[in-house]
Amino acid sequence: MKNKLNLFNVGLPDNEDLNNWSKDLIRQRLETTAITSDLVPFVSENLNYELNENMVALYDFHQRPIRGKYQTVIFDKKDGIILCQKNSRQLINHLLKDQMILGAVLQKKLQKKLGFYYRHTISLGEIAYFSMRAHSEKHTSWIGLHHMQTVQQEDGKVTFSYQENGCSYNFEFEDCAPHLYKRLAEGITHNHVLGQMLVKYANSHGFHLNLCKCRKNNLVANQEYFYLTKIQNTMNLTELAEEAIEEFHKNYGRHCADFFDIKDWQVQDHNLIYRLSRRIKSIL
What we know:
By secondary structure, the chain is α+β, with helices and mostly antiparallel strands. It folds into two domains: 210 residues, no CATH class; 47 residues. Strands 2-5-4-3-8-7-6 form a seven-stranded mixed sheet, covered by helices on one side. Strands 1-11-10-9 form a four-stranded mixed sheet. The protein starts with 19 loop residues before the first strand and ends with a helix. It comes from Lactobacillus paragasseri.
Protein backbone atom coordinates (compact mmCIF):
# COMPACT_ATOMS: atom_id res chain seq x y z
CA MET A 1 0.00 0.00 0.00
CA LYS A 2 1.23 3.50 -0.82
CA ASN A 3 1.88 5.83 2.10
CA LYS A 4 1.27 8.96 0.06
CA LEU A 5 -1.14 9.92 -2.67
CA ASN A 6 0.03 9.76 -6.25
CA LEU A 7 0.68 13.04 -8.00
CA PHE A 8 -1.69 12.01 -10.79
CA ASN A 9 -5.37 11.12 -10.56
CA VAL A 10 -5.83 7.53 -9.43
CA GLY A 11 -9.59 7.22 -9.65
CA LEU A 12 -11.65 4.27 -8.47
CA PRO A 13 -11.12 0.64 -9.55
CA ASP A 14 -12.57 -0.19 -12.96
CA ASN A 15 -12.58 -3.92 -12.25
CA GLU A 16 -16.19 -5.13 -12.06
CA ASP A 17 -15.28 -7.31 -9.08
CA LEU A 18 -14.38 -4.15 -7.14
CA ASN A 19 -17.40 -1.99 -8.00
CA ASN A 20 -19.60 -3.06 -5.07
CA TRP A 21 -18.73 -1.85 -1.57
CA SER A 22 -20.05 -2.12 1.97
CA LYS A 23 -18.51 -2.11 5.43
CA ASP A 24 -18.14 -5.89 5.35
CA LEU A 25 -16.50 -5.84 1.92
CA ILE A 26 -14.12 -3.08 3.01
CA ARG A 27 -13.00 -5.19 5.97
CA GLN A 28 -12.66 -8.24 3.77
CA ARG A 29 -10.57 -6.42 1.14
CA LEU A 30 -8.55 -3.94 3.22
CA GLU A 31 -8.18 -5.46 6.68
CA THR A 32 -5.65 -8.05 5.58
CA THR A 33 -1.99 -7.12 5.31
CA ALA A 34 -1.82 -8.39 1.73
CA ILE A 35 -4.22 -6.40 -0.44
CA THR A 36 -4.88 -8.01 -3.81
CA SER A 37 -2.69 -6.77 -6.64
CA ASP A 38 -5.61 -5.37 -8.66
CA LEU A 39 -6.63 -3.18 -5.69
CA VAL A 40 -3.19 -1.99 -4.54
CA PRO A 41 -2.84 0.89 -7.07
CA PHE A 42 -6.07 2.46 -5.83
CA VAL A 43 -5.45 2.41 -2.06
CA SER A 44 -3.61 5.21 -0.25
CA GLU A 45 -3.13 6.50 3.26
CA ASN A 46 -3.84 10.20 3.79
CA LEU A 47 -3.69 11.46 7.36
CA ASN A 48 -4.64 15.00 6.30
CA TYR A 49 -7.56 14.30 4.00
CA GLU A 50 -10.15 17.08 3.72
CA LEU A 51 -13.67 16.55 2.44
CA ASN A 52 -14.18 17.99 -1.03
CA GLU A 53 -16.49 17.65 -4.01
CA ASN A 54 -14.62 14.54 -5.23
CA MET A 55 -15.71 12.55 -2.17
CA VAL A 56 -18.08 9.86 -3.42
CA ALA A 57 -18.60 7.88 -0.21
CA LEU A 58 -17.24 7.86 3.34
CA TYR A 59 -17.53 4.85 5.64
CA ASP A 60 -17.13 5.40 9.36
CA PHE A 61 -15.21 2.77 11.35
CA HIS A 62 -14.61 4.66 14.60
CA GLN A 63 -15.86 1.76 16.76
CA ARG A 64 -13.59 -0.81 15.11
CA PRO A 65 -10.93 0.98 13.05
CA ILE A 66 -9.53 -0.76 9.99
CA ARG A 67 -6.17 -2.29 10.91
CA GLY A 68 -6.65 -0.85 14.37
CA LYS A 69 -6.02 2.77 13.31
CA TYR A 70 -8.03 3.90 10.27
CA GLN A 71 -11.35 5.34 11.46
CA THR A 72 -12.64 6.26 8.01
CA VAL A 73 -12.36 4.83 4.51
CA ILE A 74 -13.11 7.37 1.79
CA PHE A 75 -13.85 6.77 -1.89
CA ASP A 76 -12.59 9.77 -3.84
CA LYS A 77 -13.22 9.97 -7.60
CA LYS A 78 -9.72 11.39 -8.22
CA ASP A 79 -7.56 10.02 -5.41
CA GLY A 80 -9.04 6.54 -5.15
CA ILE A 81 -9.64 4.67 -1.89
CA ILE A 82 -8.23 6.59 1.05
CA LEU A 83 -7.47 5.28 4.53
CA CYS A 84 -7.68 8.06 7.11
CA GLN A 85 -7.07 8.04 10.85
CA LYS A 86 -9.51 10.91 11.43
CA ASN A 87 -13.07 9.95 12.32
CA SER A 88 -16.09 11.20 10.38
CA ARG A 89 -16.92 13.80 13.02
CA GLN A 90 -13.48 15.39 12.75
CA LEU A 91 -13.69 15.53 8.96
CA ILE A 92 -17.16 17.10 9.01
CA ASN A 93 -16.22 19.63 11.70
CA HIS A 94 -13.25 20.75 9.62
CA LEU A 95 -15.51 21.18 6.59
CA LEU A 96 -18.03 23.26 8.54
CA LYS A 97 -15.57 25.38 10.51
CA ASP A 98 -12.73 25.93 8.08
CA GLN A 99 -14.14 25.56 4.57
CA MET A 100 -17.63 27.07 4.70
CA ILE A 101 -18.90 30.60 5.29
CA LEU A 102 -20.93 30.66 8.53
CA GLY A 103 -20.41 26.90 8.85
CA ALA A 104 -23.44 25.06 10.16
CA VAL A 105 -25.28 28.23 11.21
CA LEU A 106 -26.63 29.08 7.76
CA GLN A 107 -27.47 25.42 7.12
CA LYS A 108 -29.51 25.18 10.32
CA LYS A 109 -31.27 28.50 9.68
CA LEU A 110 -32.50 27.33 6.28
CA GLN A 111 -33.46 23.94 7.68
CA LYS A 112 -35.57 25.62 10.36
CA LYS A 113 -37.30 27.86 7.82
CA LEU A 114 -38.18 24.82 5.72
CA GLY A 115 -39.61 23.07 8.77
CA PHE A 116 -37.19 20.13 8.70
CA TYR A 117 -36.20 18.68 12.07
CA TYR A 118 -33.44 16.18 11.27
CA ARG A 119 -30.03 17.26 10.00
CA HIS A 120 -28.72 14.90 7.35
CA THR A 121 -27.43 17.23 4.65
CA ILE A 122 -24.70 19.81 4.18
CA SER A 123 -25.85 21.82 1.18
CA LEU A 124 -23.80 23.95 -1.20
CA GLY A 125 -26.19 24.19 -4.14
CA GLU A 126 -24.26 22.16 -6.70
CA ILE A 127 -22.66 19.97 -4.05
CA ALA A 128 -24.41 18.18 -1.19
CA TYR A 129 -23.14 15.74 1.42
CA PHE A 130 -25.70 13.35 2.90
CA SER A 131 -25.29 11.36 6.13
CA MET A 132 -26.79 7.95 6.86
CA ARG A 133 -27.78 9.14 10.32
CA ALA A 134 -28.46 12.69 11.51
CA HIS A 135 -25.05 14.36 11.66
CA SER A 136 -25.85 15.98 14.98
CA GLU A 137 -24.92 12.52 16.24
CA LYS A 138 -21.23 11.93 16.81
CA HIS A 139 -20.29 9.61 13.97
CA THR A 140 -21.93 8.38 10.78
CA SER A 141 -21.18 7.42 7.19
CA TRP A 142 -21.67 9.87 4.30
CA ILE A 143 -22.13 9.98 0.54
CA GLY A 144 -21.55 12.73 -2.00
CA LEU A 145 -25.15 13.20 -3.06
CA HIS A 146 -24.10 15.16 -6.16
CA HIS A 147 -22.43 12.02 -7.56
CA MET A 148 -25.31 9.58 -7.02
CA GLN A 149 -27.83 8.66 -9.71
CA THR A 150 -30.08 6.19 -7.87
CA VAL A 151 -30.88 4.89 -4.41
CA GLN A 152 -32.56 1.63 -3.39
CA GLN A 153 -33.65 0.33 0.00
CA GLU A 154 -34.18 -3.36 0.70
CA ASP A 155 -34.05 -5.56 3.81
CA GLY A 156 -32.86 -2.71 5.99
CA LYS A 157 -29.99 -1.86 3.64
CA VAL A 158 -29.63 1.23 1.47
CA THR A 159 -27.59 1.23 -1.74
CA PHE A 160 -26.51 4.36 -3.60
CA SER A 161 -25.31 3.98 -7.19
CA TYR A 162 -22.75 6.10 -8.98
CA GLN A 163 -21.54 5.96 -12.60
CA GLU A 164 -18.27 7.30 -13.93
CA ASN A 165 -16.49 6.65 -17.25
CA GLY A 166 -18.70 3.70 -18.09
CA CYS A 167 -18.26 2.06 -14.68
CA SER A 168 -21.06 1.60 -12.15
CA TYR A 169 -20.37 1.62 -8.41
CA ASN A 170 -22.72 0.56 -5.64
CA PHE A 171 -22.22 1.69 -2.04
CA GLU A 172 -24.25 -0.21 0.53
CA PHE A 173 -25.03 1.00 4.06
CA GLU A 174 -26.77 -0.80 6.91
CA ASP A 175 -26.72 1.55 9.90
CA CYS A 176 -29.18 4.10 8.54
CA ALA A 177 -31.79 6.35 10.09
CA PRO A 178 -35.46 5.33 9.94
CA HIS A 179 -37.50 6.78 7.07
CA LEU A 180 -34.34 7.46 5.09
CA TYR A 181 -36.24 8.26 1.87
CA LYS A 182 -38.03 11.07 3.68
CA ARG A 183 -34.74 12.37 5.09
CA LEU A 184 -33.26 12.16 1.59
CA ALA A 185 -36.14 14.17 0.11
CA GLU A 186 -35.67 16.81 2.82
CA GLY A 187 -31.95 16.96 2.08
CA ILE A 188 -32.45 17.31 -1.68
CA THR A 189 -35.06 20.03 -1.11
CA HIS A 190 -32.76 21.84 1.32
CA ASN A 191 -29.92 21.79 -1.21
CA HIS A 192 -32.18 22.93 -4.07
CA VAL A 193 -33.53 25.91 -2.12
CA LEU A 194 -30.05 26.99 -1.04
CA GLY A 195 -28.84 26.71 -4.64
CA GLN A 196 -31.70 28.85 -5.95
CA MET A 197 -31.05 31.43 -3.24
CA LEU A 198 -27.38 31.60 -4.23
CA VAL A 199 -28.33 32.09 -7.89
CA LYS A 200 -30.79 34.88 -7.05
CA TYR A 201 -28.31 36.58 -4.75
CA ALA A 202 -25.54 36.48 -7.37
CA ASN A 203 -27.84 37.68 -10.16
CA SER A 204 -29.05 40.59 -8.01
CA HIS A 205 -25.43 41.78 -7.84
CA GLY A 206 -24.84 41.53 -11.58
CA PHE A 207 -23.30 38.06 -11.65
CA HIS A 208 -25.03 35.67 -14.05
CA LEU A 209 -24.86 32.42 -12.13
CA ASN A 210 -26.51 29.14 -13.08
CA LEU A 211 -26.24 25.79 -11.40
CA CYS A 212 -24.15 23.31 -13.35
CA LYS A 213 -26.25 21.37 -15.87
CA CYS A 214 -24.01 18.32 -15.43
CA ARG A 215 -25.82 17.67 -12.14
CA LYS A 216 -29.19 17.22 -13.85
CA ASN A 217 -28.94 13.42 -13.92
CA ASN A 218 -27.97 13.11 -10.27
CA LEU A 219 -30.08 12.90 -7.13
CA VAL A 220 -29.46 16.53 -6.18
CA ALA A 221 -31.54 17.61 -9.19
CA ASN A 222 -34.18 14.87 -9.06
CA GLN A 223 -37.44 16.79 -8.74
CA GLU A 224 -39.31 13.66 -7.67
CA TYR A 225 -37.78 14.19 -4.24
CA PHE A 226 -38.70 17.88 -3.93
CA TYR A 227 -41.07 18.99 -1.21
CA LEU A 228 -42.74 21.51 -3.51
CA THR A 229 -44.85 22.98 -0.71
CA LYS A 230 -41.64 23.73 1.22
CA ILE A 231 -39.74 25.44 -1.57
CA GLN A 232 -39.75 29.17 -0.91
CA ASN A 233 -39.06 30.93 -4.20
CA THR A 234 -39.15 34.31 -2.48
CA MET A 235 -36.59 33.45 0.19
CA ASN A 236 -33.84 36.03 0.39
CA LEU A 237 -30.28 34.88 0.97
CA THR A 238 -29.29 38.28 2.37
CA GLU A 239 -31.97 38.16 5.06
CA LEU A 240 -31.13 34.58 5.94
CA ALA A 241 -27.42 35.38 6.11
CA GLU A 242 -28.10 38.38 8.36
CA GLU A 243 -30.05 36.14 10.73
CA ALA A 244 -27.25 33.58 10.67
CA ILE A 245 -24.61 36.25 11.38
CA GLU A 246 -26.62 37.59 14.31
CA GLU A 247 -26.98 34.09 15.76
CA PHE A 248 -23.23 33.57 15.29
CA HIS A 249 -22.61 36.77 17.28
CA LYS A 250 -24.91 35.59 20.06
CA ASN A 251 -23.14 32.25 20.32
CA TYR A 252 -19.77 33.98 20.26
CA GLY A 253 -20.89 36.33 23.03
CA ARG A 254 -22.07 33.45 25.19
CA HIS A 255 -18.80 31.58 24.69
CA CYS A 256 -16.79 34.70 25.60
CA ALA A 257 -18.91 35.23 28.71
CA ASP A 258 -18.31 31.63 29.76
CA PHE A 259 -14.59 31.86 29.02
CA PHE A 260 -14.13 35.06 31.06
CA ASP A 261 -16.58 33.83 33.71
CA ILE A 262 -18.95 36.79 33.22
CA LYS A 263 -21.96 35.88 35.33
CA ASP A 264 -24.32 38.71 34.37
CA TRP A 265 -24.10 38.55 30.57
CA GLN A 266 -27.37 39.92 29.21
CA VAL A 267 -29.03 40.03 25.81
CA GLN A 268 -28.72 43.83 25.73
CA ASP A 269 -24.94 43.44 26.08
CA HIS A 270 -24.96 41.33 22.95
CA ASN A 271 -27.20 43.81 21.13
CA LEU A 272 -24.79 46.68 21.86
CA ILE A 273 -21.74 44.75 20.65
CA TYR A 274 -23.63 43.53 17.60
CA ARG A 275 -24.68 47.07 16.62
CA LEU A 276 -21.13 48.34 17.04
CA SER A 277 -19.78 45.51 14.89
CA ARG A 278 -22.26 46.38 12.14
CA ARG A 279 -21.47 50.10 12.18
CA ILE A 280 -18.17 49.68 10.33
CA LYS A 281 -19.95 47.97 7.46
CA SER A 282 -22.59 50.70 7.29
CA ILE A 283 -19.88 53.38 7.01
CA LEU A 284 -18.27 51.50 4.14
